[in-house]
Amino acid sequence: GHRPVVYSPTLGAIAHEIRAATVPVVSELAAVGSPPEVIHGHHHPQTMAALLRFPGVPAVFFAHDWNAWWDVPPRFPRIYRYVAVDDALFDRLAFEQGLPPERLRVLLNAVDLTRFLPRGPLPPKPRRALLFSHTASRGEARRAVEEACRRLGIALEVTGAGAGRSTDRPQELLPRYDLVFARGRCALEALAVGAAVVLCGVEGVGPLVTAAEMERLRRLNFGRRALAEPLTADVLEREIGRYDAADAESASLRLREVAGLETATAEAVALYREVIEEHGRHGPADPAEEGAAAAAYLEQWGPRLGDRIAWANGTWARRGGGWRAWAAD
User: Fold this and answer.
1) Do residues 115 and 238 touch, judged by C-beta distance below 8 A?
2) Comparing 103-117, 154-168, 272-286, which segment has the lowest mean pLDDT?
3) What's the pLDDT at 164?
4) Quick check: 192 and 131 in contact, CB under 8 A?
5) Which residues, 6+ apart, have CB-to-CB distance to 196 below 8 Å?
6) What mean pLDDT is predicted for residues 24-32?
7) Among candidates 79, 208, 188, 58, which has minimal Cα distance to 148?
8) Across the chain, which distance is largest between two alpha carbons, in Å?
9) Would the N or C end of the chain have less CB density within 10 A of its end CB?
């Protein structure tokens, strides 16, 4: 019953997918027309652009990444909540960024259970494995996974930008594999279909996700903080050795109980309502306060945004005092 509109200055395959669901996607804020009731921001340049384009509209800002420059939270009076998608990011917002505790929330990532359907029963021992990652699909991480699987006689395939083989339909790919090496959203999706998952990324190796550990690891988004072990074939071989088909099924069932997209959407909508109501109690914004916040933002990011955006888009960027071409990852 809501009318979402998506804004991004660069539109690609995801924009086409969203449009196919009859949700408008625009590359210019002027196309939005009348002001929305609330701004859901992710990436601070776009969030600030929306806040300045729609004065008087409250906002929430979602942080998804530990290191990314675009996930640094902007300071602005009309951002009433800063949302982390896991406990590690909550700590970044609370301690490194010093945001007020009353403005912080954690809303965990979710998976579309209508797309990622359960696979059939797993075999007693894993036969087919997938390394599912853009960054870990090459270099040291890939070599370690390949060696561990070779030792155990497990057939391995690799998917991700680093391998030159990406997919926009992971829901069709993942059910083909008994064991998946992944982190973050890739791990979440693999667990949803019922594969056994060993957490793995360029940062290190995490545990095989068991039913007993699933909720704790989900609060870390199956991500960086969970990857505490060295990236070696020995560590990976040990975690593969913990494979248990029945336990993997239990972990998947538990995940599907708590991590569905409908639950996450309801939590987000409740947060929007909370922010809208709080903004209504505050009354009109102070133009001087907002102007000072916008000026501070431009002083912090203005000199850096051009280079950083060019680098992110894979164009020419100035780095380390010289100019060079950077390819988009």
Assistant:
1) no
2) 154-168
3) 81
4) no
5) 122, 126, 178, 179, 180, 208, 209, 243, 244, 245, 248
6) 95
7) 208
8) 67
9) N
* Crossing angle between the packed helical segments 233-240 and 139-152, to the nearest 10 degrees: 50
- DSSP-assigned letter for residue 9: S
Q: Has residue 318 got a pLDDT over 80?
A: no
The residue to which tokens 């990406």 are assigned: 166
Q: Are 85 and 221 in contact (CB under 8 A)?
A: yes
What is the pLDDT averaged over residues 301-307? Answer: 76
Do residues 175 and 119 make contact, with C-beta atoms less than 8 angstroms apart?
Answer: yes
pTM: 0.86
Of 189, 134, 193, 180, nearest to 154 (Cα)? 180
What is the tens place of the pLDDT at every residue in 148-183? 999 999 999 999 887 788 887 899 999 999 999 999
The bridge status of strand 155-159 relative to strand 128-132 is parallel
125, 132 contact by CB (below 8 A): no
pLDDT 10s digits, 196-249: 999 999 999 999 999 999 999 999 999 999 999 999 999 999 999 999 999 999
Identify whether the C-beta of residue 81 lies closer than 8 Å to the C-beta of residue 278: no
- Could you list the beta-strand ranges (E) of the chain: 6-7, 25-26, 39-41, 59-63, 79-84, 104-106, 128-132, 155-159, 179-182, 196-201, 204-208, 316-319, 322-325
* Conformational region of residue 255, where left means phi above 0, alpha means psi within -120 to 50, and beta covers everything else: alpha
| Token pair in block for residue 284 | 């009109």
Nearest by Cα to 41 from 96, 90, 83, 12: 83
